[in-house]
Amino acid sequence: MITHPNAKINLGLYITEKRPDGYHNLETVFYPVTGLTDTLIIERDVRIDDIEYRQLGNSINCSAENNLVVRAYRLLQTLRGIKGVRITLEKHIPSGAGLGGGSADAAFTLKTLNNIFELNISDNELATLAKKLGADCPFFIYNKPMLATGIGDILTPIDIDLNDYMIDIIKPEVFVSTAEAYAGVSPKQPTENLKHLITNTPIEKWCEVLHNDFEDTVLLRHPEIATVKQDMYTRGAIYSAMSGSGSAVFGIFKKS
């Protein structure tokens, strides 16, 4: 079975508080971007006793066993006893970009294995399992616009449709670690409700009301990211922002 795990962007991102467990609560909107995808091929093969995994395309800085695709397989192997699969992942979504590529790969692996092995696990159950792999993995189980709170794992559907617009994504040649990004933020409650802002503000005005808290320090430390964002507006974007903790920047453009 061939699937195409897609990227996501963040529409607004507010770090609201630091939790006692060291994580941060946030408020953001995840929006799926189907124009930027990986390719995931999963085949059931009774001749294989466990898993055969192969990766093509962009490199990932981790071992195969630590890859989220393999970890997703291991999760269902432990819970449901599945075995005998051949998985090929072709990476196109940049890693370390704030686009959720690894999380998408993991979620799509869970969904595909669920179908192939006829496990009949509901989406809600899959989302609960996906949370074990990463905070934003549950979003890709549903793969539709969601208001995300908590550590990004509490999801509420939100009515946003950008199909009439073009989304361009550029990742500059700079890496921003999650630790670096969080080290620069000062958690605070947003002055206005994000869901209300997004659903009641025309897209052309988002640049005046939406903000990504990570940008406050990341753009100062990495001016090349700020340059990409400014270039988006120079080219005519009606809204541009860094996605997640970066370093990718997206621009929303009117279709000509």
What is the CATH topology of the largest domain?
Ribosomal Protein S5, domain 2
> What's the structural domain tally?
2
Question: What is the helix tally?
Answer: 9
The termini sit apart by 36 Å
The coarse silhouette is globular
What class do helices, strands and sheet pairing give? alpha+beta
Number of distinct beta strands:
11
CATH architectural label of the largest domain: 2-Layer Sandwich
> What's the helical proportion of residues?
25-40%
Query: Roughly what is the average pLDDT, rounded to an integer?
Result: 95
What is the CATH C-level name of the largest domain? Alpha Beta
Q: Poorly predicted ranges (pLDDT <50, ≥5 residues)? A: none
Rg result: 18 Å
Oligomer: single chain
Strand content: 25-35%
Strand order of the largest sheet: 1-4-6-5
What does this structure look like?
There is one protein chain. By secondary structure, the chain is of the alpha+beta class. The chain has 2 domains: 2-157, Ribosomal Protein S5, domain 2 (2-Layer Sandwich); 165-254, 2-Layer Sandwich (Alpha-Beta Plaits). Helices cover 31% and strands 29% of the residues. The chain has 9 helices and 11 strands. It has helices at residues 68-80, 101-116, 123-130, 137-142, 178-183, 194-200, 206-209, 215-221, 223-234, and strands spanning 2-3, 6-18, 24-37, 39-44, 51-57, 85-91, 146-149, 154-157, 165-170, 239-242, 249-254. The strands form 3 sheets. A 4-stranded mixed beta sheet has the order 1-4-6-5, with helices on one face. α2 (101-116) packs across α3 (123-130) and α8 crosses α9 (223-234). The longest helix is centred in the middle third of the chain and has 16 residues, at 101-116.
